[in-house]
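Inverse folding, one chain.
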């Protein structure tokens, strides 16, 4: 299987697609956020340093993110394929990542960008509603994901709650900021010859089929 870097704007469904790949192909899903939280939970010296940094409201440095990522990529279970989620976020991190995989003698085979227009992404993000009882998710803007009865869970009849703290203005700013900052990273992987842009405006199953065609 090809090792994957997932790049996607907010609400593009990167987590959904990662879960599908993990379930069907036994990919190892590597999220830098999860790695940092795991390090904290283990109570390692590095974990305590990370906890102090995050508690102060700051982001961890590239050096720390690199250290936890290198540690994870050194484990033998990645041999059957892995997905990198949340790293790299910029060209500097991409260059660091190149150094890690070279040192560990592993490959980065494809960088998949889940492309989505802002209106579709906004509807997905702002339309998310969830059952607080059984955790089933819905979307009030997408017909195939709407509950049968408005704001009522199909499975357990519990009143649904909104999942987003965003509004249209704040989401729009966040979306545009991500796209602008990510463009140099896409250029980097395009030049490297491993960038694949996938139209993510359809259903999750349609997107998954497109992903399958490139892995």
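Residues assigned per position:
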């Amino acid at each position: 299987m090809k090792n994957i870097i997932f790049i996607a704007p907010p609400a593009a469904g990167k987590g959904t697609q990662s879960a599908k790949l993990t379930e069907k192909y036994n990919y190892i899903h590597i999220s830098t956020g999860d790695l940092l939280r795991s390090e904290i939970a283990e109570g390692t010296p590095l974990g305590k340093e990370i906890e102090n940094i995050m508690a102060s409201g700051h982001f961890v440095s590239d050096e720390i993110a690199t250290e936890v990522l290198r540690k994870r990529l050194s484990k033998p279970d990645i041999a059957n394929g892995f997905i990198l989620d949340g790293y790299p976020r910029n060209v500097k991190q991409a260059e660091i990542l190149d150094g890690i995989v070279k040192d560990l003698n592993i490959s980065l085979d494809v960088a998949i960008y889940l492309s989505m227009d802002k209106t579709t992404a906004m509807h997905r993000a702002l339309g998310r509603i969830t059952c607080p009882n059984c955790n089933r998710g819905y979307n009030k803007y997408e017909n195939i994901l709407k509950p049968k009865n408005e704001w009522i869970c199909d499975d357990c009849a519990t009143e649904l709650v909104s999942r987003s703290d965003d509004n249209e203005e704040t989401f729009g700013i966040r979306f545009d900021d991500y796209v602008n900052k990510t463009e140099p990273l896409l250029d980097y992987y395009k030049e490297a010859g491993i960038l694949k842009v996938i139209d993510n405006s359809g259903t999750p199953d349609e997107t998954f089929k497109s992903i399958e065609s490139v892995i």
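Helices lie at 14-25, 32-42, 45-55, 62-73, 91-104, 118-126, 168-192, 204-212. The CA atoms of residues 66 and 96 lie 7 Å apart.
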